[in-house]
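re: that chain from earlier
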Amino acid sequence: MKSGAIRVGNLVRKIAARVKLELIFWCAALAAPLFINPYEKMSLDFCLFHSLGIDFCPGCGLGRALVLLYRGDLTASFMTHPLAVFFVFVICFRIMALFNKSVENSNHRIGVNHV
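^ sequence. v structure.
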């Protein structure tokens, strides 16, 4: 039978692995639009709503809006998807929270105490 300390240690390792994976995912989600040309018509559509024949999708245009935002075209970005700036702020906040949690976990593992 496993002791409580071993179970807690395994749980901490699983959470730390999940945090790192989520951190990588969100960083990649913010970086991916850098490789998109916003003025080119995309032939591949990943939208589930459009695949099901639904015309309205609340997320469509977000990638293109992010590209335009990164290129400094704020007006076009807002016209493409008004929540692009909000999305960047929320994801950046989540990345910072995950990074802080990752640093705290690594400090805990090596025994660093902050006063």
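The first helix runs from residue 4 to 31.
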